Amino acid sequence: MEKSLGNDSVTQDAIRSFKTASDPRLAEVMGLLAKHLHAFVAESKLTKEEWLHGLKFLTAAADITTEERNEFSLLSDIMGISSMVDVVTQPAGATPSSVLGPFHNHDSQVRPNGSDLTQGQPGERVWFHGRVLDVHGQPVANAQIDFWQNADNGLYPAQDPAQDPHNLRCKINCDAQGGFNLLTICPHPYTVPTDGPVGALLAASNRNIWRPAHFHMIVSAPGYVGLVTELFPSGSDYIDNDTVFGVRPGLIVDIKPSQDAEVAKRFGLPTPFNEVQFDFCLVKQA
Ligand code: BEZ
Ligand code: FE
After folding, report:
1. For ligand 1, atom 5, which residue shows the shortest CA distance?
2. Ligand 1 atom 6: the closest Cα is on which residue?
3. Rounded to an integer, what distance in angstroms lies between the CA atom of residue 84 and that of residue 71?
4. Which ligand lies nearest to the CA atom of residue 187 in the structure?
5. Using CA atoms, how far apart are residues 214 and 211, in angstroms rounded to an integer?
6. Which atom of ligand 1 approaches the CA of 82 most closely?
7. Cβ < 5 A residues, ion ligand 2
């Protein structure tokens, strides 16, 4: 690469340095990253102390990161980067996606459609049901819902040794009409982990550390683009101020009273009981 002088040429040289990448997408993404990071340094007139502070922050994030706890993922979440990736990759017509968060487990067990996940634990019961449909409103064959949420104390099993590791999570294979249903409890607002450098950054910025109450799910089906998303009961605290920017208008659900006698009998619920109904929409893989 030719040596060049002057500030602008540092940026141009850094962008050009990636053009040798054998993967053209790597050249494009790294060139753009260099361009925008250089513009940030120039516009903010970043001092050496600030730059060193930033490096120390990233080192502290690396130090606290383990297989179970990824501080960089949390940094991406609280910077709104995870949500921006959701926005720019959103397939037209599909249910909006939202952040995965750190509490998804790959080893959730498949439980029968119509399972009761509550197992005598405290919490307000809610019957969650709906269908998995395509963009034409037709049932999607062989759809599966991978579901997880926090318990009545606001904690996920990974944060609470008193909980069964499989508490309030499972996979459900939908029926031939794309239908699924399960009994669970109302989720609760929750704070993101604050014991690392990201927590210190949120505190120094006087930022909210809470997420509104939410159900998590991954909806998948052969031949369709998988969907990682969340549903947010309307009226939850922090619904207008999610610290990871995961709330989308299309993901807010009402918890409504239901008089369905068959469901009440099946789960031993008094009527009326709470229900959340939501149909997910998947788009076909290209
Ligand atoms: C959560 O929903 O559990 C979560 C999402 C992003 C960051 C931290 C927690
Ligand atoms: Fe969560």
Report:
1. 101
2. 101
3. 18
4. 2
5. 8
6. 6
7. 101
192 C-alpha to ligand 1 centroid (Å): 6
Q: Reduce the DSSP state of residue 12 to 3 states and report it.
A: helix
Which residue type, as a one-letter code, is found at position 190? Y
Query: How far apart are the C-alpha atoms of 172 and 286, rounded to whole Å?
Result: 25
Nearest-5° angle of CA 72, CA 233, CA 69? 20
Q: Which atom of ligand 1 is least distant from the CA of 211?
A: 2
φ and ψ at residue 278, rounded to 5 degrees: -155, 130
d(CA 232, CA 276): 10
Q: Is the pTM of this model over 0.90?
A: yes
Residue keyed to tokens 């690392």 = 196
Q: Which two tokens stand for residue 237?
A: 């605290």
Residue of 82, 86, 144 whose CA lies nearest to 110: 144
Distance of CA 191 to the CA centre of its chain: 14
* Location of structure tokens 């499972």: 170
What's the pLDDT tens digit per position in 186-233?
999 999 999 999 999 999 999 999 999 999 999 999 999 999 999 999
pLDDT in tens, 268-280: 999 999 999 999 9
Structure-derived torsion over alpha carbons of residues 86, 88, 94, 96, reported in degrees to the nearest 10: 40
Say if CB 110 and CB 173 are below 8 A apart. yes
Ligand 1 site, CB within 6 A: 74, 77, 99, 101-103, 190, 192, 211, 244
